[in-house]
Amino acid sequence: MMEKAIVLSSGGIDSTTAMAIAKSKGKEIYALSFRYGQRHSLELDASKKIALALGAKAHKIIDIDLRQFGGSALTDDIMVPKHDTLDEVCGDEIPVTYVPARNTIFLSYAMAWAEVLKASSIYIGVTAVDYSGYPDCRPGFIEAFEKMANLATRTGVTKETNLKIETPLIHLSKARIIKTGIALGVDYALTLSCYDPDENGRSCGRCDSCLHRIKGFKEACVQDPTPYY
To answer: Quick one: pLDDT band at residue 86, thresholds 50, 70, 90?
Structure first.
């Protein structure tokens, strides 16, 4: 019987590559996405196409309204910062596009589904190399959550499963991530990275996420299939 894996899917490069890696390891994929009030909700259309393309057994989109709390340019009336280059981005500050506790919330939902399915792993495409400085993308956070998950679930306490939070990209640059995905047959034309796309799904090319994407494709010597406005 195939081992089951929950894969958190945002519709972007990192989560899609993580899903492809899980599939390459023979996992049965259960994709999990969230409609949390994000301004870039078009990413959910991408996540549906990706789950289908990578043969997910199931794909759930969970509704959570994080606009109730705000505090982020993605969920509040705060402008998404735009830059001409990544050199203009201050690397020492947690950016305003950070959504408070987002990965903790997402992983908690994934943990609940994993317990019901008796899945052995949750894949999340966090990276500590080319990333925007979010505190919930760091190795220490992932290690702490994994420990908590095995203390907080019936399947963990009874040792029926030992849930592993898999972070296959955490030490990879964006270019390495893209090269890994290309080798696994990922179609990055299906993905959307932009925090502020237009109504036609075209990317802005100037938000932090777009700039990391552009840099990654350039350094990987792979043509970026993204339509920019």
So the answer is: confident
Domain count, the chain: 1
- Tokens matching residue 177: 């991530």
pLDDT by residue (tens digit) across 88-127? 776 667 889 999 999 999 999 999 999 999 999 999 999 9
Determine the Cα angle at 148 with ends 115 and 28, to 5°: 35
Give me the residues paired with residue 28 across strands. Answer: 4
CB burial readout 126-135, b (16+ within 10 A) else e: bbbebbbbbe
pLDDT tens digits, 53-67 = 999 999 999 999 999
CATH number at residue 204: 3.40.50.620
Q: What is the DSSP letter of 107?
A: H
DSSP assignment of 122-170 equals EE----SSSS---GGGSHHHHHHHHHHHHHHSHHHHTTS---EEE-TTT
What distance lies between CA 199 and its chain's CA centroid?
22
Q: Has this prediction a pTM greater than 0.85?
A: yes
Terminal alpha carbon distance of the chain: 46
Q: Would you say residue 225 lies in a domain?
A: no
